[in-house]
Design brief:
The protein is built from nine helices and 13 strands. It is of the alpha+beta class. A six-stranded mixed sheet has the order 8-7-4-9-12-13, with helices on both faces. Strand 7 and strand 8 form a beta hairpin. Helix 1 packs across helix 3, helix 3 packs across helix 8 and helix 4 runs parallel beside helix 5. The longest helix is centred in the N-terminal third of the chain and has 22 residues. Zinc ion (ZN) binds next to loops.
Length: about 325
């Protein structure tokens, strides 16, 4: 057994959902049944429920079928923006192995993000959409993202056709990860769907009092509290040249937006942080590079490379107990 590559037993948990110690680390319930394979992987037994399982069960590396060092190298290469074929040549594995591992790591990265990115305390957010393709030039798939302006942490990433549904999915997912969705300043481009959906997804719902119980229930309305604001930055281009920038305070108070800008040490409302992220994402993902030959051939491959963290080796080693969906 290699103590340098295997995590300590106290960081692992029983993966049997019916077990009373399910998902709880450091309980002293795990014993080593045997050590197997080239990587010295431990097969564990839970003393409480007698269930036996591989220590990699629940991690991105479970059942990866190639030596662990190679699987990790695949993740690192993909994380640095190498194409599938580049990765296969550099790591000396088959291209089909890269494809399979990419999806496996992507699934894990999504689940990891969904599990851990909860109840965030954030002062301001920026959002934008990036253009890309799947399979052929005629099949555009957009990536929409929401980022915390202060830490540059990506809260939310969704993919799909560029329409209101994509924006709704982004806002709903991003808002659900905040501790208080009513206390943020949101900076976006001029896309009308942002302004139209903002009250519903970040505002405070209220129903008007009814004097009768007959008839149709009145539609929910949304109030924008003082702690909430949405600012749109509309850029007009003449060819490649930026002609003008227009700032529109769409919802909430101008004061709230300016307080957030002051804390960021910004002088004017902007979407510079998400635009910077767009540029990085284009470098770090072969399928997102402009005018590339390496665009994603399969929607799943694009989805797998989407979440920031597919190439994060520490996250790949983390054991996520079988997912229980959040209500
Ligand atoms: Zn157990």
């Amino acid at each position: 057994m290699n103590e340098y590559t295997r995590p300590p037993l106290t960081s692992l948990a029983c993966v049997h959902p019916a077990c009373e110690l399910f998902g709880q680390t450091g309980q002293g319930n795990l014993t080593i049944r045997k050590v197997y394979g080239r990587d010295g992987i431990r097969y564990l037994r839970c003393r409480v429920c007698q269930y036996e399982f591989s220590e990699r069960k629940g991690t991105a590396l479970w059942n990866c079928k190639v030596p662990e060092a190679q699987a990790i190298a695949v993740a690192e290469h993909l994380g640095e923006g190498c194409s599938f074929k580049d990765t296969a040549r550099l790591v000396r594995v088959d291209a089909s192995t890269v494809r399979r591992l990419c999806r496996q790591f992507g699934r894990h990265a999504w689940q990891f993000h969904d599990d851990r990115v909860r109840e965030l305390v954030v002062d301001s957010l920026q959002a934008d959409e990036r253009h890309g393709f799947v399979a052929r030039r005629s099949q555009p798939v957009w990536e929409a993202e929401m980022i915390d302006s202060a830490s540059k942490f990506i809260l939310s990433h969704v993919q799909g056709r560029r329409n209101g549904e994509l924006i709704r999915a982004l806002l709903a997912d991003g808002a659900s990860r905040l501790l208080n969705r009513h206390n943020i300043v949101f900076f976006t481009d001029g896309e009308p769907a942002y302004a139209a959906l903002f009250p519903e997804l970040f505002g405070v719902p209220f129903a008007r009092l009814r004097d009768t119980h007959r008839g149709r229930r009145p539609r929910l309305r949304y109030r924008i509290p003082r702690s909430l604001a949405h600012v749109q930055i509309i850029k007009k281009h003449a060819g490649r040249k930026l002609e003008s920038i227009q700032v529109r305070y769409r919802h909430g108070s101008r004061k709230r937006a300016q307080d957030a800008l002051y804390r960021l040490r910004h002088t004017t409302p902007n979407t510079a942080i998400i635009e910077r992220r767009n540029a990085t994402a284009r470098c770090m993902n072969a399928t997102q590079t402009r005018r590339t030959l390496a665009f994603a051939r399969h929607p799943l491959a694009k989805l797998a490379l989407g979440p920031p963290g597919t190439g994060d080796v520490d996250a790949l080693r983390l054991q996520l107990v079988p997912h229980q969906s959040h209500a």
